[in-house]
């Protein structure tokens, strides 16, 4: 098991990572998700042994790896830019690490067949990597990382250079490979769709710290801060004030009933996450007496795959299953969550 314990790192006198701690067990895929500049790749480089932390420990099965150089950690690393040897063919790229470890020829041949089957590249052994597509080159890079049977796999924005369709295809294949091989993995990305597809656990990084940790479903359904809700685009964040009664909150969009586990006092300012409950706006006329309605006039509608992004004249946007007409007044029933 990998354990990262109390890691600190500064860069140009600025704090980059502060008290980072987490673990990765056998078979786990942990995703480090956060915006550019949050320290994700730097943390990965420290785990790989490519640069040292200022403080803290990186341990494998309880043993501190501080004195272990990168090649002795038995960790595999896959980069966004593939980092393949352009003058070598697929065979030589994939088996490079095995030759460095003095594997026997028969063992190399058998392992090559196994990993090329895993990444669906059987028959590509003699192909030049410069003749391959971006997706094929990334699969070669994955095969090379898998070949020495690493204790841990690490991915640094591995699909960032690929188009959407190819990225989705490779992501599904990678998830299947990780589940089948049970190799623990750390996956770095700024893309929440990638993170939620690949990860068993997600660690959200912001301002040098892990601000939330959990399964994709937990983080999506229970964001613990305004920043998390806004970064993930979970809904509209609304300012409000507790007004009397136990759960009444006044906002510029109306007075709402809100239940939460925090302690509040009348007059206290709070922030609410408003998510639509999937009400068809075409049938919203009968909701005038219901609680927690937001009213507005439609100013724009954008189709986004299986839903519509609907902008209202009050500045709010909601994702709805059906597209209302631009200019139409609508009422949307919302679920409100207190972000404190």
Describe the structure.
- With 340 residues, the protein is of the alpha+beta class.
- Helix content is 25%, strand content 34%.
- The chain has an eight-stranded antiparallel β-sheet with strand order 13-12-11-14-18-15-16-17. A six-stranded mixed β-sheet has the order 6-7-8-3-9-10, with helices on both faces. A four-stranded antiparallel β-sheet has the order 2-1-4-5, covered by helices on one side.
- A hairpin with a 4-residue loop joins strand 16 (307-312) and strand 17 (317-320).
- Helix 2 (90-100) packs parallel to helix 4 and helix 3 crosses helix 4.
How are the elements arranged and paired?
Elements lengths: L1 E10 L2 E11 L4 E5 L6 H9 L6 E6 L2 E2 L10 E5 L10 H11 L4 H14 L15 H13 L5 E5 L7 H18 L3 E5 L2 H7 L2 E6 L2 E6 L1 H6 L4 H6 L4 E7 L5 E4 L2 E4 L11 E8 L16 E12 L2 E6 L4 E4 L8 E10 L2
Parallel strand pairs: 3-8, 3-9, 6-7, 7-8
Antiparallel strand pairs: 1-2, 1-4, 4-5, 9-10, 11-12, 11-14, 12-13, 14-18, 15-16, 15-18, 16-17
Helix pairs in contact: 2-4, 3-4
């Amino acid at each position: 098991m990998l354990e990262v314990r109390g890691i600190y790192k500064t860069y140009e006198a600025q704090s980059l990572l502060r008290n980072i701690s987490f673990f990765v067990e056998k078979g786990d895929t942990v995703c480090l998700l956060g915006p550019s500049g949050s320290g994700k790749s730097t943390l990965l480089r420290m785990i790989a042994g490519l640069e040292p932390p200022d403080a803290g420990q990186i341990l494998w099965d309880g043993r501190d790896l501080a004195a272990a150089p990168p090649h002795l950690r038995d960790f595999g690393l896959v980069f966004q830019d593939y980092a393949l040897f352009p003058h070598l063919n697929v065979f030589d790229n994939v088996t490079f690490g095995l030759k460095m470890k003095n594997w026997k020829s028969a063992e190399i041949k058998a392992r090559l067949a196994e990993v090329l089957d895993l990444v669906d590249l059987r028959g590509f052994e003699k192909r030049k990597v410069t003749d391959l597509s971006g997706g094929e080159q990334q699969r070669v890079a994955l095969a090379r990382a898998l070949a020495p049977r690493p204790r841990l796999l690490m991915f640094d924005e591995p699909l960032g250079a690929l188009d959407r369709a190819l990225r989705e295809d490779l992501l599904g294949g990678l998830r299947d490979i990780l589940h089948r091989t049970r190799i623990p993995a750390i996956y770095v990305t700024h893309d929440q769709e990638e993170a939620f597809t690949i990860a068993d656990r997600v660690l959200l990084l912001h301002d040098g710290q892990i601000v939330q940790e959990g399964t994709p479903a937990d983080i999506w359904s229970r964001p613990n801060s305004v920043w998390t809700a806004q970064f993930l685009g979970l809904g509209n964040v609304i300012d409000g004030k507790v007004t009397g009664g136990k759960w009444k909150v006044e906002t510029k969009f109306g007075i709402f009933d809100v239940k939460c586990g925090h302690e509040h006092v009348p007059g206290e300012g709070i922030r609410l996450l408003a998510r639509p409950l999937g009400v068809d706006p075409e049938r919203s006329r009968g909701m005038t007496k219901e609680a927690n309605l937001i009213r507005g006039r439609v100013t724009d509608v954008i189709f986004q795959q299986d839903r519509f992004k609907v902008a209202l004249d009050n500045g709010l946007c909601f994702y709805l299953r059906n597209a209302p007409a631009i200019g139409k007044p609508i009422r949307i029933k919302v679920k409100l969550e207190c972000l404190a």
